[in-house]
Amino acid sequence: MDQDIEIINSQTRNQKIKEFFINYRNYILSALILIFLLVASFFIFEEINERKKIEVADKYNSAVINYKKDNSYNVIPSLKEIINYKDKTYTPLAFFFLLENDLINSKNEINQYFDLIIDDLNLDKKFKELTIYKKGLYNSEYLDENELLNILNPLIKSDSMWKPHSLYLMAEYYLANNQRQKSKDFFEQLVELKNANPKIKSKAQKRLRSSFGD
Fold it and tell me: Measured between alpha carbons, how far is 188 from 210 in angstroms, rounded to an integer?
């Protein structure tokens, strides 16, 4: 008797499953097609990105190889184009190549590229912080106190490994501008940091002794 009931229940389940597929076959087919399209789109997108990455890499390598100091203008357009690709690897490489070789004259353009790298590339935290510091270092000769602090505050007010360097930069900035008390305050903040790089802490201590007699 129990065996008969089990057979009936099994047949009923099979019938319900069959009816389900018959009643919802269009929905199921649409769902399968959608899944297939999504998977295919993902792989196509990855393939396009990989080809673009290779193209950008080739363009960067070509520009660097062909760079000549006495004829630099032939590589500048290519490197600027690479920057605007917003590639995590080659955008920073192209920008810093231009910057380090003095191939960009406009301070506004340089800061726009700094901001693009910092704000738009979703970089690793440490590299982003390094770029913020480099932006502050570049602008330390041009900007006023508040503008420079605005750049460096994300580092100064954090536990970044670039915090000591930013404090030192601000201390030197104030000293160069004859704001001695502010300079001393920043050197002292650096010296009091517990986990600061020993070399930069030592530099700050020497600065305090030589410039302030402390």
Answer: 14
Task: Give the pTM.
Answer: 0.75
**pLDDT per residue over 40-78, tens digit each?**
555 554 555 556 667 778 888 888 888 877 677 778 999
Residue labelled with tokens 């019938």 = 15
- The CA distance from 5 to 115, in Å, is 73
Q: Any idea what DSSP says for residue 67?
A: -
- CB-based contacts of 151, cutoff 8 Å, min separation 6: 132, 135, 136, 139, 143
How far apart are the C-alpha atoms of 160 and 167, rounded to whole Å? 11
**Cα 30 to Cα 27: distance, rounded to the nearest angstrom:** 5
Query: Rounded to an integer, what distance in angstroms lies between the CA atom of residue 75 and that of residue 60?
Result: 9
The pLDDT value given to residue 46: 52
Token pair in block for residue 176: 């160069």
Q: How much of the chain is in helix, strand and coil states, percent to nearest 5?
A: 80, 0, 20
Give me the torsion for CA of 185, 191, 197, 198, rounded to 10°.
140
Q: What is the DSSP string of 28-61?
A: HHHHHHHHHHHHHHHHHHHHHHHHHHHHHHHHHH
Cα distances from 149 to residues 46, 108, 134, 173, in angstroms, run: 41, 18, 13, 11
DSSP 162-178: THHHHHHHHHHHHHHTT
Per DSSP (E only), the strands in 29-160 are none
